[in-house]
Amino acid sequence: MSRRPIIAGNWKMNLTVAEGLALASGVRDRCNRFRGIDVVVGPAAMALHPIIKRLDGSAIGVAAQNCHWADKGAYTGELSPVQLAEVGCTHVIIGHSERRTLFGETDENVGKKARALHDHGLIPIICIGETLAEREAGATIDVVRRQLDAAIAPLEGDELARSVVAYEPVWAIGTGKTATPEQAQEVHAAIRGRLAEAAGKDVAEQVRIQYGGSVKPTNIRALMAQPDIDGALVGGASLDSDSFARIVSFKEDAD
Question: What is the pTM assigned to this prediction?
Answer without folding.
Answer: 0.96
